[in-house]
Specification:
- The chain is built from 22 helices and twelve strands.
- By secondary structure, the chain is an alpha+beta fold.
- The strands form three sheets. A five-stranded mixed barrel has the order 4-5-6-8-7. Strands 11-10-9-12 form a four-stranded mixed beta sheet. The chain has a three-stranded mixed beta sheet with strand order 1-3-2.
- Helix 11 (185-195) packs antiparallel against helix 12 (200-212) and helix 21 packs antiparallel against helix 22.
Length: 563
């Protein structure tokens, strides 16, 4: 389990999920709880300067030196570095002969940064104070020079003194959460996302982590979903209350009805059974958009076409029943009732793009996919940072990227706001989303004049610039240049099972790509025997959706990949 901490994959692990802590854990390679305690204690402003010394000592025990033998049992757990207040207390007791009570006075002076008290204790520690019962280092056989050096080191430590027992409490929780994540990954991630269910940005970040862990995220489901994120086999089911406009009263009503009378058979059954509850038209619309009815017969487009009519019909039936009237539906035999049910129109399903837009609208995140998903490798290959690096870390109250640093991000322009300067120059404020989250990008007039034509909503872009970071805020990117995804040279991979299969379909392939002109290179991959061939510069293409769709129809969707 501890090995998992060494990988840096500590998202959701208490105290260990910030970017800096991930890097530290990869270097430290903790082997026991003591290492985690020390790591948590050191990763703070001030003590961070001593991290290299600790890592060096841990990796090379032979290089650790102690000013005197008495220090070894005290500092060996932290590889020769003073890390805790308790170590200072033990040093003054074991080397200077202090009592337990007096060593605690030194600790208090350190924690409250009382330099005058610390200076007074210097002489007591090195030379002793017989009147107060302090032998001192010299009297206990420790050279004066060594005693002064040790005390000077402790004085430096007083600037960032940390309580081990406090860090140990944190470390135990860190160990427990790491244990749960390692042995119960699906349950852990479901609980973790439920804890941040009101923060779509954080949910999106953890969804990406789940996908990296091989855990599928399923859309909400009225026949299976719970108020929060729940476990469904080896996957995670999206929580019902995470749907926009669906609070706990609505979710609880759906679940209560499901438990009382069984699962919902179809849309009409759901609407009929929930007609006397708090479920309204907006709730139903958002259920449809979120994919909560996907397990029932019909498509989201069909559901959207008829649900208002069905709900109006239910309402009219209730009025008739209250008035003691019978409807035509009530008069016919059971065998004939199906003829009077509202049928789904043959309208098919929405495009993938529209489905994702709906999910984003009502869930705040993409669940069944992401517009960038097919470009993920291209995205990762060309960026230096994700939007997560720009987000304020709740643990450290800072961002993971330095103010003024150069950065390259990639994503979709979700929103664009135009502003005019005092000189009547045009500038823009963008909301850019990647696979992790969303950040603000500022485009000043000079840059906008050059790249404004590329800065359209829904455009997939690479943005280069510098970081603008302020205290207690998410960082922003000051844009300096823009490149659309279409402008980035890509490789179009086409896979064939055998060389014979490729030779048989070569003419068909060349004919399909002949009309396409662009910068993207075509690569032929043969599985058996394994071989690869890159077509020449005169056969480059523009790997747009039209070409990809054509090739997928010819050779199969699983055999065509743009990277």
């Amino acid at each position: 389990m501890l090995d998992s901490l060494c990988t840096g994959r500590t998202d959701g692990v208490f105290q260990l999920e910030s970017g800096g802590m991930k890097s530290f854990m990869k270097e430290l390679k903790p082997q026991n709880l003591e290492d985690i305690i020390a790591g948590i204690s050191l990763y703070r402003p001030g003590p961070m300067d001593f991290i290299p010394n600790m890592i060096k000592g841990k990796n090379n025990h032979d290089e650790i030196t102690y000013s005197c033998p008495e220090l070894e049992p005290i500092l060996s757990p932290t590889y020769g570095c003073i890390v805790y207040q308790e170590q200072v207390m033990q040093i003054v007791r074991d080397l200077g002969g202090y009592t337990m009570g007096r060593s605690d006075l030194v600790r208090r002076a350190m924690s409250k940064k009382k330099q005058s008290v610390m200076e007074k204790e210097r002489a007591n520690f090195v030379y002793g104070n017989p009147e107060e019962g302090v032998p001192g280092c010299v009297a206990r056989g420790i050279p004066e020079k060594v005693g002064l050096e040790i005390y000077a080191e402790m004085m430096d430590f007083a600037k960032y003194a940390f309580n081990k027992s406090h860090a140990a409490c944190y470390a135990v929780v860190a160990y427990q959460t790491a244990y749960l994540k390692y042995y119960y990954p699906v349950e852990f991630m479901a609980s973790l996302m439920t804890s941040v269910i009101d923060n779509p940005g954080k949910v999106a970040e953890y969804i990406l982590v789940c996908r990296q862990m091989g855990i599928a995220i399923l859309p909400p489901d009225i026949n299976e979903g719970e108020p929060g994120f729940s476990v469904s086999g080896k996957s995670i089911r999206y929580g019902l209350t995470a749907i926009k406009g669906v609070g706990h009263p609505v979710a609880d009503a759906v679940i209560a009805e499901r438990k009382l009378r069984g699962v919902f058979k179809n849309l009409q059954d759901f609407l009929s059974r929930m007609s006397d509850t708090e479920v309204n038209k907006r709730n139903v619309e958002n259920f449809i958009k979120a994919g909560a009815f996907d397990s029932l017969e019909g498509t989201r487009k069909q559901f959207m076409s008829v649900f208002v009519q069905l709900m109006d019909q239910n309402q009219q039936n209730r009025k008739n029943n209250m008035a003691g009237q019978l409807s035509l539906f009530d008069l016919v035999d059971e065998s004939e009732k199906k003829n009077y049910e509202i049928r789904f129109p043959d309208v098919g399903e929405y495009s993938k793009e529209i489905l994702l837009t709906f999910e984003k609208e009502v869930l705040g995140v993409y669940v069944s996919g992401h517009p960038l998903q097919e470009y993920e490798q291209l995205w990762r290959r060309n960026i230096s940072n994700t939007t997560a690096d720009f987000m304020l870390d709740e643990e450290t109250n800072s961002v993971h990227i330095q103010d003024g640093a150069k950065a390259v991000i990639g994503g979709i322009i979700e929103e664009k706001k135009i502003k005019y300067t005092k000189n009547d120059k045009v500038m823009a404020f963008l909301q850019v989303e990647d696979l992790v989250g969303t950040i603000e990008v500022i485009v000043f007039p000079k840059t906008y004049e050059q790249y404004g034509s590329k800065l359209m909503e829904d455009e997939k872009v690479l943005l280069r610039g510098r970081v603008s970071a302020e205290e207690d805020k998410d960082a922003k990117l000051i844009c300096e240049s823009v490149q659309t995804f279409d402008e980035i040279p890509k490789k179009l991979w086409i896979k064939f099972p055998t060389m014979e299969a490729y030779q048989q379909q070569e003419k068909k392939l060349l004919s399909a790509i002949a009309a396409s002109d662009g910068k993207d290179t075509v690569v032929i991959y043969v599985e058996n025997p394994r071989a690869m061939k890159q077509l020449g510069a005169n056969q480059t293409v523009h790997g747009d959706e039209a070409l990809l769709k054509q090739l997928e129809e010819l050779f199969g969707e699983e055999n065509v990949k743009l990277m």
